[in-house]
Amino acid sequence: MSTLSQQSAAPLRARPALAPASTQLAVLLWRNALLLVRYWRSTLAQTVGAPLVFMLLLFVLQRADYAVQSVSNPSPPSAPLPGVYRCQGRSSIPCINIMFTPATAATQSYMSTFAALNAKRTGETALALEGAWSDLAAIPSRNLDMVPVGSPDFIYNYALRHPNVTAWGITFNQATTNGVNNVQYQIWYNSTRVANSSDVFGRQLVAFMRGLDEAIITVLNDPSATVKASIDVTVRDWPVVPPKTLSDSIVQNLGPVFFFSCVMVIFINVVNQILTEKEQKLRHGMEMMGLRPIVYWLSMFLSTSLLVLASSVVTCILGIAFQFATFKNGNFAVLLVTFFLLGEAMIVFAFFITTLVRRARVGILAGIFVFIIGLLFESFVFSSGFVGYIWWKPTTPSAAPIVLSLLPFFNFGKCFLDISTLTTGKLDELTGTYVPGPGFSWSSIYSPVISTLLPTYSDATQPDVPALVVSWYMLLVDMAVYGVLTWYLDRVIPDEFGAALPLWFPFMPTFWGIESRRQRSVEREDWLDEVMSTSAREKIDDEDSDVSVERSRALSAAFWPAAKIVHLRKVYSSLLGKEEKIAIKDSCFTLEEGKLLALLGQNGAGKSTTMNILSGLTPATSGDAYIYGMSVRHQMHRIRKVMGVCPQHDILFGDLTAREHIYLYAGLKGVPRAEWAALVEDRLQAVRLLKVADQRAKTFSGGMKRRLSVVISTIGDPQIVFLDEPTTGMDPVNRRHVWSFIEQFKQGRIVVLTTHSMEEADVLGDRIAIMAHGRLRAIGNSVTLKNKFGAGYRISIVTDPARSDEVRAIVYTQVPGATLEDDSAGSLIYQFPVSSTPLIPAFVRNLNNYEGLIKAWGISQTTLEEVFLKIIRDANPGGYAADQLVVLDDAAPLPGTLRPRFSVRRRNTTRSQSAAAAAANAAAADKDVYTDAAPTSSSTNASSRNNSSLNPLV
Ligand SMILES: Nc1ncnc2c1ncn2[C@@H]1O[C@H](COP(=O)(O)OP(=O)(O)OP(=O)(O)O)[C@@H](O)[C@H]1O
């Protein structure tokens, strides 16, 4: 037994191969370059505009910061030390201003004197001496001023138990040696209470000490003396001289935010571009024509990398031009690589995002979300070494920086922090001045930041920071991780047509082009058995005899034309699987080489779905099709090499010209470069687009776009071409050019075409299949269909009104089944049933024998439109659709048929209402009326060619 491809009745003559991946890549890069040039404003904005704007902003901020740093104050004013103020307490927790111990007469005297002297300085009432406090657990019910307590331990433990309740604590220690009083005291001071002020250990503390000293001196001298001891201290700042080295802290702190933003402009643009191409099905279109998905991603990566490189170079140059310390003291290559790697990693991250969403709008929102998270990281996490390096503090879990390094902006923040720490330096806590860093050379990437430049945390630990090159490696890892995720998810997440590979596809040898001998050469009978045994079937009682014959041919193991469609079924389910729409029910038919099959059907009949399955856009629910020995279900990648598709909606790049479209698809299909120019001439001339070959597709009219789409589907001379409503929107002249192009092109090929034009189906279709509700209702050539479903022939005879009886007698004698449809002013119209067809030739010949009696005559066959309407009516016994009832009116004669001209009007009424209304209208206007109960109607668009060439009698 031989194989499918070997046994095909019509084997591929010369199977065209797709272009190699390298050629496809080259042609896509050329397309991307063209678009970058065409969208030059956007390109410039991403590469130069964004870095310029962000760097300029940073420069302005840096200058503003320098202006603040450069302020000088040669004579700051002096001010006296203030007094000690009452503690305020918090709304729910009162405070204790001062606890003191021991509670002796001397210490109480010191404190009372302190309160009295202090009140003069604060202007408040004097602090009161409260009763002793010994309850360690209790919190006072009101603010207390000066509380004697039992011991220093009490103060300590109370502060531990009730933090932030007590403002001051004093432990006195007084000894008299040789008549000399030695008074010592220790002050406990709650610095956190004033941590947000500028006076942590400043004036308040000194003022307190000064107040205590005054009190002690006063008491020890003579508390009753009129003149008390007074220690007046005036405090004055040193003159402020601008530092010689201005710190670049603004660039160090805000730089990551601004540089990250430069890259994010490209990031958002990439998300938008990829999703727009997805949304407009441009990528689908290219893939249907054989583009390998990996080539698409690679081309996008390479062309966007160019933008990233340009943006990184511009950023580094501007950094130097603006004299930022990071750029002045940092190695140019280190900075360039850092920016470039960030950009590259963010691009691949953008690719990853585009696999998760379908709409550009949603993608942009997702991109903005990522942008904001990145900004938060750069602005808060990496704004200073103290916070930025905390991830590498010994006490931080080591998994934290590893997990976070999956975010490209985390790695960038670390890189920039390293560079800016070494180039900008660090604030010397002691002197309050900036110590410039040693600079960042290329070799610095291998060593961690020196410990003197690293922060020391409150627990006296320093972070164990890895070298900068590790962050570069992590950026490369990010690219690899998101690249692989993109590659995987792009294939397993179903697109809007539901096409997706199984989750385990990487483990399928066929995915890698490895096919076992058995897979390469499936016995066609085996395949047929398998499809028949695995496919769902419907019980169909009322199938037309020709459709049944076609089904038998498709299911026959002895008949193998170029393509077979077997038990094809498509069910669309809603997201939750609650609603199902059966778009195709058990379709079986065959396709022969050199013959065009025209698919007709009402809207929603399932024509496009059939085309989409056969062209690999959407998977069949069950059943399969075999085209030139290849299975649509399993070998679509091979079929694509011999397939051309003109989808229902134009898939064109608005900013590419017609010529560039042909070059692009010729490149993807592997047409040799030398043939491209001739291809443009030949094909565009055929559809009359040559004059506009260099105009962009967005300037084309609807009909011009359709013509270009038809041409694209024929590039690479595919063996099978699917044309979904190819002439929609075309004027009659151009439609005929396209018809003649298709007519020539179909030689030696399979062409499947869907259309709503009966004329088109009549002219082009070697076979015509009519679908309704997902089922084939009729199939055959035009004449067969007309004979089978038409009402026969219609003849009109013009005679003298006075002699019309003679004519009637002649007609009834020669064609007994004829029915008179109209008789007015000597114009007789007869309908001849199909059964009388054999009598018609003799009848027509005879008419010439009645020269004086018959002045003129004409004959017409049932039109395809009448056949179509009949089949659709039969398929809809309950009414085709409430809003699609056919009502005919207008009595103008139709050229060539001597019949009144009818126009088709749709009414939004029910069947019976419409019929009644139509009858009423006709009665009123004396017009012919056809309702959906009438078997046929005349066509308004039957071509004269059909009437003559398809009519065997004329
Ligand atoms: N993606 C989809 N999801 C759900 N239902 C769909 C989908 N695509 C098509 N259908 C449904 O399947 C049926 C067949 O649609 P199809 O597009 O094949 O019809 P058609 O014959 O090509 O119609 P038209 O002449 O209007 O193009 C319709 O009822 C349609 O609503």
UniProtKB/TrEMBL annotation:
Q: Where is this region: Disordered?
A: 923-954
Q: Which UniProt keywords apply?
A: ATP-binding, Membrane, Nucleotide-binding, Transmembrane, Transmembrane helix
InterPro entries in UniProt: AAA+_ATPase, ABC2_TM, ABC_transporter-like_ATP-bd, ABC_transporter-like_CS, ABCA, P-loop_NTPase
Signal peptide (from-to): none
Q: Which organism is it from?
A: Polyrhizophydium stewartii
Q: What is this protein called?
A: ABC transporter domain-containing protein
Classification from the root reads: Eukaryota, Fungi, Fungi incertae sedis, Chytridiomycota, Chytridiomycota incertae sedis
Listed Low complexity bias regions? 934-954
Which PROSITE patterns does the record associate with it?
ABC_TRANSPORTER_1, ABC_TRANSPORTER_2
| Subcellular location field | Membrane
